[in-house]
Amino acid sequence: MRVLVIEDEKVQRDNLVKIVERSYINTKAYGAANIKEAKEILTSKEIDLFFIDINLPDGSGLELAKSIREIERYEHTGIVFITTQVIQIIDAFKSTHCYDFLIKPFNNEDIKAIIGTFYRKLGINTNVNKGNYLIVPIENGVSVKVYEDEIIFVEYASRKSIIHTIKNKFVCRSLTLTKILSNCVNSNIVQSHKSYLVNINYIDKIEKVYSKLYDIHFTNTDKIAQLSNSYKDLVYKKWCNE
């Protein structure tokens, strides 16, 4: 599931992107500040749901929505308008058959409710407890069930694997990265470095540190993983196809 948020106010855009990705597994949210950026993303990616601010700096969000509807693959794609004025929504419903709308200021529950309803209408399962999982032994004979779709990244340090998920962090001394990777069904979990596995779905950006090393930043945490030259092509190929 891919969501595109088109909102010129950076704080609101970033907040909406985070809410979407933190609330639903297997969901990637992209942010665009204007129509130009939005068109670049919707052309290169297959978007399943749009959030569009009606007032954008380089044009009308309503006109953008109309142009989206002219693209065959987006003829029936969900569109949610963001606005400060309810009166603007009337024309939006008539001309673009939009799915729903958000009135500023909106809260987290408003967004979750809209996306949850959209998922259910499409028959998409939002229950994270039905995904593939790993049984991870932690300490004192205790093992936990870790859902693969919730794993952000795994690091190996001081002879132990540290699994970072969207909700918790688990430390395991008996599983190596190789063992964890071989047990994963989710093909979006890949090796990025001799000491790291990463989930492609949560990568926000990749920054070059020096010629042979890169930092990987994620949407759901401030923590950073590393990418080495040996795995760069694999990671970029998977990430760019998301």
Automatic annotation (TrEMBL):
In terms of InterPro entries, this protein maps to: CheY-like_superfamily, LytR-like, LytTR_DNA-bd_dom, Sig_transdc_resp-reg_receiver
Q: Provide the Response regulatory domain boundaries.
A: 2-119
What PROSITE patterns does this protein map onto? Answer: HTH_LYTTR, RESPONSE_REGULATORY
- Record keyword Phosphoprotein present: yes
**Single GO term (MF):** DNA binding
Q: Give one Pfam family, short name only.
A: LytTR
Q: Would I find Phosphoprotein among this entry's keywords? A: yes
Sites of 4-aspartylphosphate modification: 53
Classification via SUPFAM superfamilies = CheY-like (SSF52172)
User: What sequence ranges are listed for the domain HTH LytTR-type?
Assistant: 149-208
Q: Which PANTHER family match?
A: STAGE 0 SPORULATION PROTEIN A HOMOLOG, TRANSCRIPTIONAL REGULATOR-RELATED
What does it do? Answer: May play the central regulatory role in sporulation. It may be an element of the effector pathway responsible for the activation of sporulation genes in response to nutritional stress. Spo0A may act in concert with spo0H (a sigma factor) to control the expression of some genes that are critical to the sporulation process.
Q: What is this protein called?
A: Stage 0 sporulation protein A homolog
* Source lineage: Bacteria, Bacillati, Bacillota, Clostridia, Eubacteriales
Quote the gene name from the UniProt entry: lytR_2
